[in-house]
Structure formats: structure tokens, C-alpha cells
Amino acid sequence: MHNTNALLNEFYDIIQDPYVKMQETKGSRYFGFNCIFIPEEIIHAAGFTPVRILGVYNDDQYNETYFHRCSCEFARNLLHSYLDGCYDFLDGSVFSQCCDALFAVYQNLEKMRKNVYYFWTPFHSKPSGFGSEWANHFIVKKINEFIHFFKDNYQIKITNNDILESMKIYRENISLLNKLTDYYQQGLITCIDYYAIRKASLFIRKEKHNALLNKLFSGFDLTESKGNNHNSRKKLLISGFLNADMEWIHYFYKMGIELVADDLCCFSRYAGYGYPADSYPADDQNTLMLLAKRISSKKCPVKVGSNQRYEDLIKRYHESGAEGILFFIYQFCDIQALEYAQFSHKFKNEGIRTLFIQPSLHYKDSGQIDTRIEAFLEML
Fold this sequence. Notes:
Helices cover 50% and strands 11% of the residues. It is an alpha/beta fold. The chain has a domain at 17-156: 3-Layer(aba) Sandwich (Rossmann fold).
């Protein structure tokens, strides 16, 4: 049996200053992506390590040459991180149209850097919008263009077998993360360790993450509960965009909150949706259709209609046993803020208590947020 604490430390080591470590690594090839709708398996099949791009600029004094101060704080942070050289180690980057602010990040970078790609996906508009047959065929076409991007710019030919092998690895990762969630819900792992392990998957190749997870599971003591203490902590579902910031996870835990489930961009929205039940296909187009269907199954307020989003949140809420929903959104993220405005009265009618907080990307020691959370928890 392995030392569980030592294995957990491996995950924490991965998420500690990951971009700095990548800059210092010789011989590795990294490719950045910014969105859950990117076909990450194609990057993996090309031999790169897909890396989730998170803002790392540690100052709020952004240069306003490219963005107004009332623009999305994350988008401003992301652009400044690129301009300051934080991502110079990347061999390329791919963006998708999450929102107008991140599209503006792409438009600026495309003029300044080589090998910056934009992956188009449809928006929600029935009957031909996201998730429709037409949309899936459109995504297949765009995946094919992305494959040709690697051939044209890196002289890398990606075969159908390469993609199938990557899909097999990603399918295993989804299965292992589901197993991790089961262990978390059983109280076999703490909230903080749970999210740290999941965050690690954003910065390493999935086969390495799979190996670490399998090693961790073999060392678990399945008889000892050391995670969730539901009697003393308030159980919440968290939704929105946390930027995979572990300081906030620690903060919520310190405030007496157990995040029993999430609807966060970098966690469940990212890895919570598997491939369709179809068997592995033999020809190229069917392989890409499986990828397209996985992409279009993901539920994000940018792409999915409000009724689907509401039903998905309600389902997560009841299945998790949460006592309330915490909407966490950084300043000027209009799309997710508008979603809360649309849903809040519906949740109230259902008897579900919600709290909306919109902090700065940089300042986490807000007494106002402390007070609001304390008052919210007392109402549960």
C-alpha cells in the first residue's frame, strides 16, 4: 500500500506554480487552451501537453491599451499574462468563443504571436444550434481544420489511430475522476484534496494523471472517513467561474462550507461530460463525430439555453444533497451574472437559497464577503 499523503503531495506539487515549472522544463511541448469546448484530444494526439490557460498576472494595475477597466477582469488578466511573457513557453494556443471579452484576447494575440488558433463552435439557437445534428457536423468540420493546423504549422500528421488512443486515455481519465468524486462523497478524501487533484489534470498529460490517480486509489483506506463532516459544515453547490483558484477553496472550507458539488468552468463543466455510449468507430469521420458530441454535451451558459442550464443545476443540487447554491463570478463576467439574474427567482420559488458573490480576481480578504457568507450560512 502506498503512502497516501506522499501521493497527494505529488498532485499539490503539480499545481504549485505550474507555468513557472513548464518554463524551466527542457524538451517538453506545451499547447495552451482556454475553454471547455476545445477538442483537447487533438492537441494530445499531436504529441503536445494540453495546458489550461489561467490568468496569472498578480497585479490589478492593468494596462488599458487593450481593455477598458470595466471589462472582464479575467480577460484583462489573461492578456497581460501573455504580454508579460508568462506563457512564452507555449508552442501555441487555441481559443474558443466563450464570450466577446475572450474573443478580444484572441484578436490581440493573433496579431502579436505565432500559432494562435481560434476554434469556432455554434451558439444556442434552435433548431440548428449547439447540440443539434447540424451543429455536430459543423464541429466535425472545425475539428478537421484544427487537425490541418497542426500539419501546416508543425508538420505533424494526426492519424485516426492517434485520436482513438487519445480518446481512450481521456475516457479513462473521466472514469477515474468519477471514481474520485464517489470517494469524496463517501468522505474518504477532503474537499481541498479533491479539488487539488482535479486541478492537477489541467497541467499534465492525461496518462500521467491517470497513473497518479490509480496509484492514489490503491493506497486509499476505504474504511476511514476523513473528508466530509456533514454535521458541522454547510453543504453547498457552487456554480460559476472560480479560475481553479485553490485559495478560494481553502477560504470556503475555513468558513465552514463543504462544496459537495460544483458547476465550475475548470472542474465539472470541463471534465464532467463523457463520450456518447457509441463503440469506438473505425473511420475518421465517426471518430470526430464522437468528439463533437462530447463537446456539444457540455453545459455552459454561453452555449446552452437557459431551460437546459436550469434543469442541469437543479439536478446537481438534488443529487448532491446541497443545502444551497453559491454563485461565484468574477467582476464584469456578464454572461454568468445574467444567468444568475434569470435563475434566482426560480430557485426562490423552489425554496432553494442562493448567494451571489462577485469578488475581485486579486483580493480575497474581503470583510464584506465574510459577512455575507456568514449571514447566508445562518439562514440555511
